[in-house]
Amino acid sequence: MKYRIFLLLLLISVFGFSQKSKIDFKGIEKNLRNPQSLYNYERLIFKFKGIPKSLDSIEAQHLYYGRNFRENKVSTNDEEFKKLVVAFKENNFEDCIKLGRALYDKDPTNLDVLLILLRTYDAKQDSSNFLHHLSQFKLLTDAMKNSGDGKSEKTAYYVNSVGDEYILLNILNIGQDFTRTSKSLKDGVMDIWKNNNNEVYIKVLYLDFN
Description:
This protein has helices at 3-12, 25-33, 41-50, 57-66, 79-89, 93-106, 111-123, 127-145, 162-171; strands spanning 157-159, 179-185, 188-195, 198-205. By secondary structure, the chain is α+β, with helices and mostly antiparallel strands. It has a four-stranded mixed sheet.
């Protein structure tokens, strides 16, 4: 079993039909913080960690975009994340699991952490943990893909970070033959990826409703 097979299925799923809807960020923030809401963060993260396949697309949207309103998020600039990257590059998979699990417990919807854990469990041929994290990874990336169709600025894909943008680009099979132009917005940056007559719009969010 190789993770590439499952990531291929992940790539293929981008061509499936799904309903696109405008994202209510303020509503997501309110729901996640409301203990009585069906979309309360603790309720959703419990399902996400235990049975990720049980979450629907609205719950996935709350978890993915709700990360903007969480504290103590893991950054790629954090020393512990840098140690995780070094351990992975050195094929030190035992340290990868130890460091990765600690970061996952702190920030379970972090796609960078999930991706490294996926590749680590694949290298160790640990199919149980690999498939579990794959379900989580696909749930969150589907939330990105379902945020728009990328065909115009009004229907752009929404992503939480530049790192997530590159994960989405890989899923969409957008490579080095595309060039990027960017423009600043009040709540993010709009990147336009072009290749001949093809254009893909991706908005990197910088949200602050406090």
